[in-house]
Records
---
Amino acid sequence: MKTTTYQPETGAPCSCKRGVQRDNCPTCEGTGQVIDFAAIRARKPVEPDDPSDYEIQARDFLKKWGIKFSVRKTNSGKCPLFCDDSKHIHGDEHRIKLVRHLTGKRLEFPFWNSLNDSQKGKEPTCYDVLACISSDLHCPETFEEFCSEYGDNTDSRKALALFRRCDSFGRKLRAFFDNEEMQADLQNIN
């Protein structure tokens, strides 16, 4: 089986601040960790249209940490939580279930695949889901930081409601992926 290194080890946190400075930081490119650009240039490029390498990476993560992944199409007709206009057209809604073999911990949540994938009849893969939730582990800790990071107004009830949903989901993810090494592995899925 072909093994590909996807992210070089970055190590140190970047000294930039969240928000506009981080978004434009050439050292971390918004990740918050110093990126080893020399290692990126030196590695063999991966074909972006070959999803098999990415899917293998996601499956290896699940196997390494003893996690069972399942997906079920629900099509409840509801909009995703981040959408405030029911007239938008979205992909199909699915119910994702992750179960840790050793501890029996479970995590279930709704997941919408892209409209393009829905039109092709494609179900979300473990890579699709893990790549999306890897960034959700690190929701800003305060409402003010959240607004600064995503450009929202701190005087907005809508922004506060969104922050609370994101914070709640981030806490659930951190409880499920409670091992720091596991969280680091999850962040490298991209």
---
Amino acid sequence: MSMRIRNLSRRRIALLSTVALIACGVAGGAYAYFVDTGPGQASASTGSLQPVTVAALAGATPASSLLPGGTGDVVLRVSNPNAYAVTLTSVTGNGTITADAGHPSCTTTGVTFTGQTGMSTTIAASSTMLVHLPGAASMSAASSNGCQGATFSIPVSITVQLG
């Protein structure tokens, strides 16, 4: 019987020692995690967002032409000079729509731009991207005859966000 007691005692001692070591290890780790302090310095700086620009694409041929009573595509060139991507979220009209200089008799263009919202077009870092806006321009039947064959400048503003 004394052998049995000794075996049980050794097992209990081994088990208690293991539990004690685990408890000390967890408590020591928790103590170090929550109590550890020390002197030091840190610094951070913020960058500044460089302007993302939009321009008409010279010589662009949209997939659909603008005709009186119909709609046509608008093509933009968006340039992101930043070192990180931005997301184009909207394009809105921002001024008077005019015909090219070769069509001086296009006095009433009848052209309107439909703002584009809810967009999610990623413009990669340090890149330029063509953005096609299908059916974003429309032309009323009130347009003057001198507008036939004209190319229209549609001033727009864009909204971008990081990412």
---
Amino acid sequence: MSMDSVSEHEDKLRAMAERRIREALDSGEFKVDTGPDKQLDLEENPFVPEEWRLAFRVLKSGNYRPDWIELASDIENDLAAWRTAADRHFAFLRRRLDALTADAGGLRRMREEVAALKLRHARATTYHARMMDEINQKIHRYNATVPVTSLMRPTLSADEEMRRFADRLPAYLNY
């Protein structure tokens, strides 16, 4: 391939990238905000081919994030919400049991209250397992779209996570 044909090829790629960026800007897919408070980031990524650097720079400056990065954020948010829901559930169970044992009248209602707490825990266990499955599905989608295998994430181990969840159950409710 001659130098002229390489240069011609690069020009075509650059023109195609610029056209795609213009179309995305025109359609409102992303907005480039370069007002007085915002500066264009001119740092070049050495792993991006030369012919794509301008396009990547414009996308980065416009705060455009690829789908796999958005999905990674969703996974992190879901994991945090999942853990928080489990923490709230077990804190509620402990508070209810503490209130029952502290109240003399609570001891008379103990059997009914324990049955209600066990039912609540069964529903929480189902919710916990369903959320774990949904997070694993997102992790599978993420792993299928992430551009570098070193960024892939392991899925949650259903057996291990459900064992951990069950281990947190207060002993009084575990009979």
